[in-house]
Amino acid sequence: MSMKTVRVLSGKARVAGVMGWPVAHSRSPRLHGYWLAKYEIDGAYVPLAVRPENLAAALSALSKLGFAGVNVTVPHKETVAGLVDECNPTVLRIGAVNTVVIGSDGRVIGNNTDGYGFLENLRERAPSWRAGAGAAVLLGAGGAARAIAAALLDSGVPLVRIVNRTRARADELIRVLDGRLEAVDWEHRAKALEGAALLVNTTTLGMVGQPPLAIDLAALPRTAVVNDIVYVPLETPLLTAARARGYPVVDGLGMLLHQARPGFRAWFGRDPEVDQGLRDFILADLGA
Ligand code: ATR
């Protein structure tokens, strides 16, 4: 390696990371590392393997260690929501934190940028989509669905239909978010597409090793956008089927990239760009 490619930190370097258990699967160090190198920032982003029983201590140690903040991933997102000193209304609504910023006074501030990342990616990749154009149909009722539903409602989508295999989870999501939402039984998913302007898969169906998502798209209006948040593989069976029928399609990689921007901006002082170079860099690691 030539000296040129060696990146050296100064004593003033800003430090951030990602807390998870396990954390080895996380792509965040690679993603933030790309931006730190691209912008030649004096900063580091490290994986932090934190066991659940050590989470509270690890979180309160951040300010003592001088960390600028961290991302939070599985299985800590919900627990951290109950441990922060301060959080924004999004966190209160969805009950999960993915981004922590340490304030200048040492306070632990929680945010959730998953919904933001989803919307930024949708707007970038499907510029024809308008929030007011019609209902959004969300397949799934997990943490991702919760963040996306909240973001869509906030952006002015007139109705969000939650279609989930386990009906009780859809009902619970609707109760918690308390907005223009309705639950639809899984077996009626094809009919739920009538009049919709957006279809989003937030289930694990279509992911490598999982069965494909089976859904008849016939009732979905021709102008509707189909967005799968699965990104391994990038082209899921749902996106292939939607593309073949002529729908604008959006893959899941961009949500992963855009949700990382607010944290990077807060910790390192620059709103980083999501460009093709970054997509290729992350895709190379996904084997996609
Ligand atoms: P996340 O927090 O990332 O959204 P999750 O909470 O594990 O992930 O949610 C996974 C979603 O995929 C759930 O909506 C799940 O449906 P259930 O609530 O019924 O479990 C959905 N899912 C997983 N496997 C499925 C399958 N074979 N058919 C239909 N839905 C499935």
CATH superfamily of the largest domain: NAD(P)-binding Rossmann-like Domain
Give helix and strand order, one letter per element, not per position. Answer: EHEHEHEHEEHEHEHEEEHEHHH
**What is the level 1 CATH name of the largest domain?**
Alpha Beta
Give Rg in angstroms.
19 Å
Outline the secondary-structure elements.
Layout: E1 14-20, H1 28-38, E2 43-49, H2 55-65, E3 69-72, H3 77-81, E4 86-87, H4 89-94, E5 99-102, E6 108-111, H5 114-125, E7 135-139, H6 143-154, E8 160-164, H7 167-177, E9 181-185, E10 196-201, E11 225-228, H8 237-244, E12 249-250, H9 253-258, H10 261-268, H11 276-286
Helix pairs in contact: 5-6
The site of 2'-monophosphoadenosine-5'-diphosphate (ATR) has 14 residues, from helix 6.
Give the structure's gist in a few sentences:
This protein is α/β, with parallel strands linked by helices and 288 residues long. The protein has helices spanning 28-38, 55-65, 77-81, 89-94, 114-125, 143-154, 167-177, 237-244, 253-258, 261-268, 276-286; strands spanning 14-20, 43-49, 69-72, 86-87, 99-102, 108-111, 135-139, 160-164, 181-185, 196-201, 225-228, 249-250.
Can you walk me through this structure?
The chain is α/β, with parallel strands linked by helices and 288 residues long. Helices cover 35% and strands 19% of the residues. It has helices at 28-38, 55-65, 77-81, 89-94, 114-125, 143-154, 167-177, 237-244, 253-258, 261-268, 276-286, and strands at 14-20, 43-49, 69-72, 86-87, 99-102, 108-111, 135-139, 160-164, 181-185, 196-201, 225-228, 249-250. The protein is globular and about 60 Å long.
